[in-house]
Amino acid sequence: MLLQFAALSGVLAAFWIVMGVAIAGARYPGYSHLRQLCSELGAAGSPTEKFSPLINNYPLGILFCVFGGYVLYVSSSLLFTTTGGLVIAHGMATFVAGYFPMDADPYTQTPSKKCEVHTLAGVVMLFSLLIANILVIFASVSSGLRVFSAVCLVLVVVFLILMAQAYKQRGNVGLYQRLSYGAQLLWLAGVSVTHWQALS
């Protein structure tokens, strides 16, 4: 039972963040899921500064670390060992991003030290799953999982480009952030289901 939970923790993380962001957003008057970043829910001075990390970053960090640890436990190759380590790194960076809030204004020219740490943690979050995705494409897995991983990777990159453009134009940056990270979590959920099926 414990192994099955660990194998499915990647799927649970994907569902958790959808619910967590929706709940936190409902407690933030005037918050726009289209125009605002997820991190703005926990930004310094926001109505949900303390609440958002409690229901998002910290439990999600645990779920990511549990799944990464499971991948390490069942790994039989260097690629999957590295993948497990990267998922754990993603989980730890999720903790850090929650503990150190971003500034209230995402366009500030002089970010605080806490915001700089938050941004660095966000970079680790992005690239840890991005690299893990690439590794699985070249791992000894089914052709279906490789194709699925490649499609998710393309979606992540496309939405990241659109997100960067929206940020510059001060447009719907929140929408493209959610789509990009959603594609990463969809990939993680797919890998999670594959591991769970292997236990059945």
Automatic annotation (TrEMBL):
Residues annotated as transmembrane: 6-26, 55-73, 79-100, 120-141, 147-167
Entry keywords, A to Z: Membrane, Transmembrane, Transmembrane helix
Keyword Signal: no
Xref: InterPro entries: DUF998
A Pfam family matched in the record: DUF998
Presence of the UniProt keyword Transmembrane in the record: yes
Protein name: DUF998 domain-containing protein
Organism: Saccharophagus degradans (strain 2-40 / ATCC 43961 / DSM 17024)
